[in-house]
Design a protein that fits this description.
The complex is a heterodimer of chains A (328) and B (305). Chain A is of the alpha/beta class and 328 residues long. Chain A folds into two domains: 192 residues, 3-Layer(aba) Sandwich (Rossmann fold), CATH 3.40.50.300; 66 residues. Chain A contains eleven helices and twelve strands. In chain A, strand 4 and strand 5 form a beta hairpin. The model of chain B has no long low-confidence stretch (mean pLDDT 86). Classes of the chains: A alpha/beta (328), B mainly alpha (305). The complex binds adenosine-5'-triphosphate (ATP) and magnesium ion.
Chain lengths: 328, 305
């Protein structure tokens, strides 16, 4: 408990639009230890962004609701926190880098104006000190001509530069926890590598914990200590990084690993998991992955598997059950 | 930026020129004014003489050419009625029109922007629903009807405000309210939808993630982004308020350009009509020109290349 910075317990989130309600997050549990990089992987639509927005308290106020569960940050439950207190944490103790670098910066304010906001809100600093701090951080994330950049507008910067600006925005108050939601997905490959490298450096230097959300197992292998595999609003497997790649227990994880392009072995055709993530309103009884699972058997369609724990390795698949005894 | 300004300025000239040309030919369709200024039983020769004196007997294109060449020198001729300089008469009425339009605009903005912002912030609450309902009504009510209604209550029944005329600030209250009503409704709706649009944007989420409190988020960040479309609308409406105050001016006997234009049209006092159209078109075009520059100013994507 003491070494956990973030504990998400049985989190359930629903969205309302008109009369319809959907529940894209249905009982999510995971723990992020201090100083750790925890990866969250899963296909598009599995609920990664919704989960991370919930941690930041940034879910749309009117249309969404946390129906159950806890999000404990340093022992305090964020789901019960008043907006006024929560605001003191945002951008200060927890910060977030968003998936969309092109639209996440305000087009009518300069970079400097936007970057000054976290310091203005959370630190008692003069304008001069703020500017100096911003330039420092911009230099840290490898932005050239920082003194000029602060007077420029987002549209004057490339995508890679904007994401660096977003990273510096997240870094300004030296948060304990940084959430990065697919920080490199929108960028091209060479820039991706630079940004990841940068994040790794920064994390080590600043002694932060990092929640790294991605659908790319390659990124996970590069960056993470442990991995949470999400599927259709549930967590299907949690394991330490090497163990996950060496001994994946859930067929979905195996599918993800098999569909990774590898550099040395050029397969004729990439493996891919057939079918799609079910929409939140399409989920019925049984295992969420059953309809796409190559190993599914009758029980999988009847009853959702519980969590099987073997040490730190957790998975949610009937094939772990010794009674079934037919682990492939 | 300078290119942009020059290009837009040339457009102003073209717009004014086109407006004058269209009106010049349109009013000629209504016949020539000579008959109106002579007694009905005037002999033919006298009418012809009078037409010749005023130049209305020449071919239309010659008259047009003549009109254009003097108009570019700022000469719109003399009023057929009072023989005074037409442009001078129009200009003397301009301050009254401006006074009314500006006060209506200021009133509309003062009411509409806070209302629209609040409506967006409290969307789908009772407050918002009532607000939206009122704006629909506000946009649907014709201004002559609203004007008459206000006169009925405040001037005829309660006898607290004058029903017409100009001069004192008290005289301005009813016409200003009448003229502002439509703009209040329009601006409120527009501000609300612009704000709703902006509040959904990723960059607002980013600001919130930096710990910006709700009030600042709305008043500084979201409002600034919404101002871009609002400015355009306001500019368009200021043109409408200046040129379109005709009905309000007539209802309240307000001594402005609109009422003058209406009266001159009835009297076929063409020089004044043309001078009036010139002034209104010029103002309209210049306002749009200024709005574009302002727009570029608040939107760095245009300003900073
Ligand atoms: N504001 C919302 N209203 C209704 N449903 C939503 C909303 N935001 C997300 N959802 C639903 O929640 C589910 C999970 O979405 P989420 O964005 O978390 O996926 P993701 O794992 O981040 O995917 P991606 O890799 O594409 O970013 C989806 O089915 C989506 O339709
Ligand atoms: Mg996402």
């Amino acid at each position: 408990m003491s070494d956990a910075i973030l504990e998400v317990k049985n989190l359930k989130i629903q969205f309302k639009s008109g009369k319809e309600t959907v529940q894209p997050i249905r009982g999510v549990d995971f723990t992020l230890k201090k100083g750790e990089t925890l990866g969250v992987v899963g296909e598009s639509g599995s609920g990664k962004s919704v989960t991370s927005l919930a941690v930041m308290g940034l879910l749309p106020e009117t249309s969404s609701e946390i129906v159950d569960g806890e999000i404990n940050f340093n022992g305090k439950d964020l789901t019960k926190m008043k907006e006024k207190q929560f605001r003191k944490i945002r951008g200060n103790e927890i910060s977030m880098i968003f998936q969309e670098p092109m639209t996440s910066l305000n087009p009518v304010f300069t970079i400097g104006q936007q970057l000054s906001e976290p310091l203005r809100q959370h630190r008692n600093m003069s304008k001069k000190e703020i500017e100096k701090e911003i330039i420092d951080v911009l230099n840290q994330v490898g932005i050239p001509r920082a003194e000029q950049i602060i007077n420029e507008y987002p549209h004057q910067l490339s995508g890679g530069m904007r994401q660096r600006v977003m990273i510096s925005l997240a870094l300004l108050c030296q948060p304990e926890l940084m959430i990065a939601d697919e920080p490199t997905t929108a960028l091209d490959v060479t820039i991706q590598a630079q940004i990841l490298e940068l994040m790794k450096d920064i994390k080590d230097k600043n002694d932060m914990s990092l929640l790294l959300i991605t659908h790319d197992l390659g990124v996970v292998a590069e960056m993470c200590d442990r991995v949470v595999v999400m599927y259709a609003g549930e967590i299907v497997e949690v394991a330490e990084i090497n163990e996950l790649f060496d001994e994946p227990r859930h067929p979905y994880t195996r599918g993800l690993i098999d569909s990774m392009p590898t550099q040395n072995a050029r397969k004729e055709r990439l493996y891919s998991i057939s079918g799609q993530v079910p929409k939140p309103n399409e989920i019925t009884k049984g295992c969420v992955f059953a309809n796409r699972c190559p190993l599914a058997f009758d029980k999988c369609f009847e009853e959702a598997p519980p969590v099987f724990e073997k040490g730190d390795h957790i998975s949610k698949c009937w094939l772990q059950d010794s009674k079934e005894g037919e682990v492939v | 930026m300078l290119d942009f300004i020059i290009k837009r300025f040339l457009q102003v000239i073209v717009v004014v020129f086109l407006a004058l040309t269209v009106v010049f030919f349109l009013i000629r369709l209504a016949g020539d004014p000579t008959t109106l200024f002579l007694p009905p039983d005037a002999p033919r020769e006298q009418i012809e003489e009078y037409r010749e004196l005023l130049g209305y007997n020449r071919p239309l294109y010659v008259q047009y050419g003549d009109f254009v060449s003097s108009a570019v020198q700022g000469d719109f001729g003399e009023s057929l009625r009072s023989q005074e300089d037409a442009l001078g008469i129009v200009l003397s009425r301009l301050p009254a029109t401006f006074q009314l339009a500006i006060s209506a605009l200021v009133l509309a903005l003062l009411i509409a922007i806070p209302l629209g912002v609040l409506s967006a912030y409290k969307r789908n609450t009772v407050f918002d629903r009532i607000g939206v309902g009122l704006t629909v009504v506000g946009q649907a009510v014709p201004s002559f009807w609203l004007g008459l209604l206000l006169i009925f209550f405040f001037a005829a029944q309660l006898k607290v405000l004058p029903s017409g005329g100009g001069g004192t600030p008290v005289h301005m209250i009813l016409p200003t309210l009448t003229l502002a009503a439509y703009s209040v409704a329009r601006f409120t709706r527009f501000t609300r939808s612009a704000m709703l649009d902006v509040l959904r944007k990723d960059y607002i989420r980013t600001a919130k993630a930096s710990g910006v409190p709700t009030m600042r988020l709305i008043m500084r960040y979201a409002l600034r982004n919404s101002l871009i479309p609002i400015i355009t609308l306001v500019a368009l409406d200021l043109g409408v308020l200046l040129g379109g105050a005709v009905i309000t001016e007539v209802v309240f006997s307000w001594p402005g350009v609109g009422r003058l234009l209406m009266q001159s049209l009835m009297n076929r006092d063409f020089p004044i009509v043309l001078a009036g159209v010139f002034i209104i078109a010029l103002i309209y075009a210049i306002i749009n020109f200024v709005a574009d520059i302002l727009y570029a100013y608040v939107n760095p994507q245009i300003r900073v290349k």
